[in-house]
Structures are given as structure tokens and as C-alpha cells.
Write a structure and sequence with these properties.
The structure is a homodimer. By secondary structure, the first copy, chain A, is of the alpha/beta class. Chain A has nine helices and six strands. The first copy, chain A, has one domain (26-198): 3-Layer(aba) Sandwich (Cytidine Deaminase, domain 2). Helices cover 40% and strands 15% of the residues of chain A. The first copy, chain A, has a five-stranded mixed sheet with strand order 3-2-4-5-6, with helices on both faces.
Chain lengths: 209, 209
């Protein structure tokens, strides 16, 4: 408790208004502009696509802007990237802002749709397997393909919690018409997790049970 | 495809920049200000808390600002409400913005933390059981209690998909130290689902498998 604005509100009956709930603004860190300018417009191969996701994760650690996770949304067939994300949980004070969530939300904003499937065939490439929340979000976003680098056990090995995912979740994605490819450049993705741990980066969702 | 801005970018090599990925702004509809002004500052009883969540869901349908779902975050012990949300998927073109996600993000923004548990004991009261994504998000947000109105089967009955939730998810929440109370004012919450269906509201996440 003890938040100053809340304390002030408590002493001002009737002061509660829409203004007291601030908007949430999802904005990428400034370094991302230069990062994007350095990328090719298209990444034909799956490893090239993962290189971009892992590079985002690494840069996010090096710049101190969040957790060791990056994700990119590509047009599946052309390899053109449309949106991207990094983990911004600590930076933006929002537990929703995992890299995959940021990439999906920004891609939808760019394309002006809440259902990417209505727009084309999109692939989410993530430096790590999705946690329980991101896995659920993948089902709603309208992507037809997911590519992962590190395994969820790699994330758990450095202290992150991945949540309670349904048993056999890759098969469940496939039943929904969403392809999944695992272990793409896994070693390179795991290196970034190790870098974060070595730097003492905060583990914002520690295993609590 | 055929999005005009993207088409223009395709003909301007090098034009891809941070500016081409717009920020995502999570903002409540304007009617919420008057709604909040009408609420008591605290709701001591669990049914009174659910009344607020269901009233939000109903108003969201009546105003045409989104799906038939509402959620409120309360200080668990005092019943003071801190943040709230309604489903904004279609309004904001973002598949992440379920009512629970909106309520959790806005509460965290208001309190300036990505972990509500570090701040106090908070309870999420939702007019419907969480989908797979929201269930995952509940694990990260730092709430210690969840209260639900309608069952997920009620949401499915009007056409919504709830995603692949782990078997025994209420017990899994409890293992994480998160209490769950189900079926609070379930009939009233189901009424709002029916109202939405009767008005022909869009089912933005239809069952695709």
C-alpha cells in the first residue's frame, strides 16, 4: 500500500474518476528503431528468422530493457517481418508484456486487426517456448505457425516460471491448425538466458508454489 | 493483405522504421468514467463485487464497445476497487484485451508495479471464468484470489472459444496460492452472455478446430 496518489484519493471522497486509472501504453524501447533499420526486410529461412528473435532477446538484455526474450511475427510464406517484441515486464510495469504478447499486439496494431488469420498467413518466431499465458494468446491472435528456440525447461533452469501448460500443448496447437517447430537455434537462445542470469537480471515471475 | 500503409512501405525501401509499428494504447471507453462515479468506493461482500463486474459486462454490450465480459480488481480484505476492465478486443483491434487482461494491466499501471503481490492482497472478480490466456496471466499478475461468475461452458454455449486449459485448473491455481470461488451470480452473468448473442455481437474467437 502507501502509493502516494492512492493515499491522496483516499482523503478526497468522490475524487475517483476515469483519470485515476492511467492508460497503458505499449511502446518499444528506443534502441529498437536502429535494430529494425539493420534488419533485412525479409528472412527467407527459418534459422534466419530465429536469428532475429534471438538478437532482439540479446539486445534487450544488453540494453537492460527487460527479460531475455524476443519474438518476431513474419509473413509465413514470404519471410517479411511485420511486427516484433521484447520482454517489457519490468520496464513497463506490466506482467502481460512478455515478448510474444508484445509482438502479437504490435503486429495486430500495425495491420489494424484483432485476427491475423483474416489478413494472411503469419508465423510467430520466439526465442523461447511460450509460457501458459502466451500459449493461450497464440490461440487467439490468428497466427498459423509458431517457431521456438529455447525450451521452457531452459527458462525454468534460470529461475523463470512457465506456468501450468496443458499436457501435450504442441499437439493441442496443431489441432487448432497452428504448426509448431521447436529447438531452432536452441543453443543460441539458451546463451541469452545464461547472459541474463550472469548479469543478475531480475526474475520477475519466480516459481512461487 | 492490401493494407494501404504496408503497400506504401513496400514501394519505399528503407522506409521501415520504428514509426511503422504504432504504439498500442489501452484505454477504457468514455462511458466508464460515469460508471465509476456511480460505484461505491468499497464493496464488502463477494456478491456486491460480482455485481460490479457483471454491470460492466452488461454496459459493454449495451454500449457496443466489446464482448460481454467485465472484471474488477479489489483489495481483497477491504473490498476497495482499484482497477477494472471490459473486453476491448474488437474496439482496440487486439486479441489480448479480454476483460481480465485489461483489469490486470490497468491495476498494475495504477499501482506502478508488475507484481500486485508485492503491493498487497488483491482479488480479481470476473463475470466469466478465464480463458486459457487469462488463466496464464492470472498466475503472473500477483493476485491472491479469483472470483468467477459464468462458467467457461456458458461462454462456449454462445460460441466463444475458451482455449486449451490444463485439466484441473482451479486446483492448479490453488497450488499457486490463489484462491478461487466459482458460480457467484452465475445466472446474472449468463444473462449478459445471452444478451450479447441476441444482439448478434461478433464472436471474435470462434471455435476453429
Amino acid at each position: 500500500m502507501g502509493h502516494p496518489d492512492l493515499a491522496a484519493e483516499a482523503h478526497s471522497p468522490g475524487a475517483l474518476s476515469r483519470m485515476t486509472i492511467p492508460d497503458v501504453i505499449l511502446r518499444l524501447p528506443d534502441w529498437v528503431a536502429a535494430f529494425m533499420a539493420d534488419q533485412p526486410q525479409t528472412c527467407p529461412g527459418i534459422e534466419q528468422r530465429m536469428e532475429m528473435a534471438v538478437a532482439l532477446a540479446r539486445k534487450n538484455v544488453e540494453r537492460g530493457t527487460g527479460g531475455p526474450f524476443g519474438a518476431v511475427v513474419f509473413e509465413r510464406d514470404t519471410g517479411r517481418w511485420i511486427g516484433l517484441g521484447v520482454n517489457l515486464v519490468t520496464r513497463l510495469n506490466c506482467s502481460l508484456f512478455h515478448a510474444e504478447m508484445v509482438a502479437l499486439a504490435l503486429t495486430q496494431a500495425r495491420l489494424g486487426t484483432f485476427d491475423l488469420a483474416a489478413h494472411g498467413r503469419y508465423q510467430l518466431v520466439s526465442s523461447c517456448e511460450p509460457c501458459a499465458m502466451c500459449l493461450g494468446a497464440i490461440g487467439w491472435a490468428g497466427v498459423c505457425s509458431v517457431v521456438c528456440g529455447a525450451r521452457d525447461e531452459d527458462a525454468r533452469a534460470v529461475g523463470f516460471d512457465e506456468g501450468d501448460k496443458p499436457a501435450g500443448w504442441p499437439a493441442a496447437l496443431k489441432r487448432r491448425g497452428i504448426d509448431i517447430v521447436q529447438d531452432v537455434l536452441r543453443d543460441r537462445a539458451v546463451e541469452v538466458l545464461g547472459l541474463y542470469a550472469a548479469r543478475g537480471g531480475p526474475i520477475y515471475n519466480p516459481r512461487r508454489p
